[in-house]
Amino acid sequence: MHKEENEVKKRRGFTLVELLVVIAILAILATVSVVAYLGFTDKAKESNDIGIITQLNTLLKAEETTSGKPKTMHETVLLAEENGLLLEKYPNKDGNEFVYNHTDNEYYLINKKNEVIFPENEVLDLNSKELWKFVDNEEELNAVSKDGYSVYLTSTFTEGTNKDNTLTVKKGFDAGFVQDAYTVTYDNSIKQKAVFHTNGGEVIVNGASGANGDTVYHYGEASIVRVNSVGSHSYHEFGIVSSLNIKDGRVVIESGSKTTEVLVTSDAVVDNVKVEIDNGATVERVIDDTNQLPNTSISGQEVPQLQATHVKNITELDNALYTKKAKYVIFDNDINTNELGFDGNLITADSTIINGNGYKLYGHRTYPSGTNPVNNYDYKATLRLTTGGQDTNAKHKVELNNLTIENDVTTGTATTLAVNTFISDLKLSNVKLINNATNGKPICIVNNGQKDAANINVEINNSILQATDSGYAIYNNRKATINVNQSTFYGWSAIYMKENSKGSIYNLKETNLNCTKKYDGTSNNFGTFAIATGYTTINLDNCKVQNLMEGTARHALLSFGYAEIDASEAKEIKVDVTGDDTLVVGDLVYDSWGIKPLPYTLSLTGGLYSDKEVSKYVAATHMVKEENTLYRIVRK
């Protein structure tokens, strides 16, 4: 009996209290283990970050020995990338950050308390050190800049809710790899040094002036730099700028830089303005809009100086160009081209520069009663540039800067800017051409010419050409070399190449091309480049082609067959796609001619394409399917 009772007791197991005690002990042990494990992994991640900092700082010191200290933070990011370090991916431990000390040319690893983890015995001294932080968004940029740091935009940087492409900083700014054309305002009232690196857009310098003012250095590219105030220690230009406007302070155009124009604004503080142009700099012209600067205010390299003519209406603009033969014209307000019976023609001098000063030219050209400009694509143009004669040897150069031109026709065929046969050079910088006409062919730029007309050189920088969904950004019917940089096109086709444009060359760099045609069930065969001629070369470099057509439309990169010419002339069409171009289209080629063999060649050495027929144009060994009908063309 006792033996059976003992066996029962042995089989009874744990009581509830005993189980709870065991569970509690296990929970404590688990917590301790997890904490210990997390602490271990954090230490491992931190050790890895310290290893990266050590390697990076070694690279920086070695580079400094051979090539000098980096001028911008972006140079350090590029150096790291060349050596396999993508700094935006680090640090590994959440809460830690990489900070660049430009003064001593080294990186720090800091924690969320802004304490330096590595190198040891270092402190964050914002008063005596120029310190930089990576920022992912505008809110972070504002907070970091307010704390006294310079900012570096990550490649995934996003704006705030306003989406107005404007940013404000209190110290240095580096756009990094971001190509968006921001307007960056430097707003500061104390003596300090600030370094800027931009990839286009506008820079506004509102710095501390006088002997206790600050010193600003600019690298990279900008369409406009406005030096509203800077110290006698100077604004230093090392980059590429279309227009450098000066109101107050000393400006030095450094060796190796390229500045199209230096404009001393009409409201400049004359006694404070000093401009020094290094002999190694490239400056095309200087404009003293005060007409009061002493000769000693501009020193160094001798540069042509132009006098500015101000205009307030279309009559003054017409008179300035036609009668006065003005070389440089500045708008003082918006101008309506329909006023006073203006016919839309502007007769240019042999070299004409129009600075819109941020204002708008709007309206449209009217024709005398009884005329019928059928098939004339400069019909109802807002502005038509002409030489006023038929001299085939004329070499007229026209520049349009910092100007919006808008056609106010709401329906039918209309053009924003028309160019006469005898204009030899056209340059647009920071220009916006708008054409919102519907039920016709709205066109931003028409370049018409006879079959044997002389070649025209067209340069478009930091500009927007915006046509509605049935039009073209550029309609080219003349042999041309067209160079486009950091611009955006909207339209059914970005460029329509007519028969007289045979032999033209189109070079597009860092430009967005957007097809906006509404799909009507039939018109799915037009291309981003509509080609109606032969012997044409298109070079795309880091461009983005987007199909914004509604519905299931298939929009091609290239389309052929829109001309009254012998199809046999359509030979040697060459398209070279290099860099990191992204082409999101329905087809690479739409050919309505049905010519065999194909008259064109595609050189696709990089980019992303959506076209299930891409294998027709690219060797299979260079094609990698990513998802659905998306293929990436890998470099050869």
What does this entry look like structurally?
- The protein is mainly beta and 636 residues long.
- The chain contains 5 helices and 49 strands.
- The protein has a 21-stranded mixed beta sheet that branches. It has a 19-stranded mixed beta sheet that branches. A 9-stranded parallel beta sheet has the order 23-26-28-30-33-36-39-42-45.
- Mean pLDDT is 79; it is low at 368-375, 562-572, 593-600 and 605-636.
Defining key terms:
636 residues; mainly beta; 19-stranded mixed beta sheet; 49 strands; disordered C terminus
Task: Provide the fold topology.
Layout: H1 2-11, H2 16-67, H3 73-82, E1 97-101, E2 106-110, E3 116-118, E4 131-137, H4 138-146, E5 150-158, E6 166-169, E7 173-174, E8 183-187, E9 193-199, E10 202-210, E11 215-231, E12 235-237, E13 240-246, E14 250-253, E15 258-264, E16 274-277, E17 282-288, E18 298-300, E19 305-306, E20 308-311, H5 314-322, E21 328-331, E22 335-336, E23 345-347, E24 351-355, E25 360-363, E26 383-386, E27 396-407, E28 414-419, E29 423-435, E30 442-448, E31 456-461, E32 464-467, E33 472-477, E34 480-485, E35 488-491, E36 493-497, E37 505-509, E38 512-515, E39 527-531, E40 537-541, E41 544-547, E42 556-560, E43 573-578, E44 582-584, E45 587-591, E46 600-604, E47 607-610, E48 623-627, E49 630-633
Parallel strand pairs: 4-5, 5-7, 6-8, 7-9, 8-10, 9-11, 10-11, 11-12, 11-13, 12-14, 13-15, 14-16, 15-17, 16-18, 17-19, 20-21, 21-24, 22-25, 23-26, 24-27, 25-27, 26-28, 27-29, 28-30, 29-31, 29-32, 30-33, 31-34, 32-35, 33-36, 34-37, 35-38, 36-39, 37-40, 38-41, 39-42, 40-43, 41-44, 42-45, 43-46, ...
Antiparallel strand pairs: 1-2, 1-4, 2-3, 47-49, 48-49
